[in-house]
Design a protein that fits this description.
heterodimer, A: mainly alpha, Fumarate Reductase Cytochrome B subunit, two-stranded antiparallel sheet, 2 strands, about 80% helix, B: mainly alpha, two-stranded antiparallel ribbon, 19 helices, disordered N terminus, disordered C terminus
Chain lengths: ~230, ~375
Amino acid sequence: MNHSVERLSRNQRIQHIILLVSMIMLSVTGLVLKFHSNPFSVWLIRIEGGIWVRGLIHRIFAIILILLSLYHILWVTFTDKGHSELMALTPRGKDFSDFFRKLAYNLGLSGRQPQFDKYDYLQKLQYWGVVAGTVVMVMTGMILWFVNQSMAILPKWAIDLTLLVHGWDGVMIFIVLFVFHLYNVHLNPEVFPMSRTWLDGSISLEQLQHEHTLEYNRLMSDKKNEK
Amino acid sequence: MKNNMTVSGHSSRPAKASAAVRIFIAAAAVSMLAVLMPMKAWSQPPLYQKCLLCHGRPGFKKILPDGKVLELFVNKAELEHSIHAKLHCTDCHADVMEIPHMKVPGTVNCYRCHYKDNPNGAKPANEFFQSVHGKLDEQGDPKAPRCQNCHGGHNVQKVDSPLSTVSHLNVAYTCGKCHKPQYDNYVQSIHGTALLDRHIKSAPTCTTCHGKHLILKPDSPDSTIYPLNVINVCSKCHENKELIRKYNIPGGRISTYKESYHGIADEFGSVRVANCSSCHRAHLILPESDPRSSINKANLAKTCGKCHKDANVNFTKGKIHVNYKSKSNGILYYIGMFFEILTISTLTLLFIHILLDLFRRFKSGETKGKNKRGE
């Protein structure tokens, strides 16, 4: 019997790797500007080849992220797999109740855990966080990249505001991805030090049953029906 | 006197009295001479007098073969008041071996005394050789200034003397003899008017920014006005709290620049990015309120346009030196505050969430390999 099932397709894994590489590169070349007086930033800017090369790297990975985003939009719109994934990630009322039930469980107020489908509320939050973050970052980033053209239509304070939002949003995305996402999928005791799903795309039936009970149940009933 | 006495007919008493006066005057004269003579002899070396036989005559000059007139008059008063009053002429004009001299003496070489390790001041000379002026002089540029071009020849004074050509008040005029356009701009600037018209001693002059002897070209990385160093020069006064308060100079200019993209790029070595003088100009620095100022609202688009080619009137809508921590910036302050609170609270909530999750997992034994309790 097959002990694991596919959770992420090859296509999704490649998208994820491109996303994580560009996010890391954009963070290390971007946050150094926000925290420019920090000695670690000073060191990073130096190994990035100076302030000008830093900007070049930042723009190259921005283009990669934008191309990936465009591909992703086409993928979730026009492919069956992509569309079903998007549907699975759509927030529903259950997600809110799941949040409170999980909170009650973690606080020891309830003995029962909520049961999750393919994506639990945290995973949905992270996905939409990245989507919203990317939209804001691409928009503000473009204004700053083409600052000469932007200045022709925007007042100075609007450009300052754009810079402020771009910087802080970068910090927010960094926190959500590198603190929260990393814990939830890799560093938590269940899979510590790392879940291999992002590499081989598979999840053990055991873990699936534990973490995505509703999906597991559906899968099992489908199998029964096949038989 | 004798005639007077004869005419008056009085002889005895007035004659006695006049003898006493005569003795007194003679004694006074002798004692005065006794005091003055050695001082005069000491302060004026014999050669001094001898040279001035010719050079002390006003209008003493020589017409050179090319038609140029060489003024050879030496103002004795000037010489006597100079810092070198006690030197012999030939201490400086060392190539004059006989008087009258037959050959035209060469340019005075100050390094005879002002050399390295000489306690009388050697550092300036060594610095001068490194400077743009010294380098040009070394290359034989006839226009390159030497010591005496700035410090004066016979009238050389201590730098703190008001008569010195290089005093804080006079040095701009001295530099302006060669650097005319810069001087013309400087005297109109806020710095120039503060120093020259309002006599504010703290106001900068040429040497405050450019240095004194070690003046280097702006493109030399060691120059005080190299693009990356300009901020340090301006900070000397514009980050000086005492001066800012005393003369009501706008504060926070340096700190806000350092937080801007321009400042960050400058900090990390970009020479293309705007520094203070890119916008405020180097010499014709004027307050925003002045219509001639490069940062006057009417001129701002043009100033920004030097680098940002599409800059227009939009750039006057908002502050340039933005302090995100100041309420006076309105929306920028509140949005910045919002993000700060949002970030801190998100981080806090995420950590609480993680800790709760860890707490529950360990409590119910749901760690790696033990996850049999799945419902």
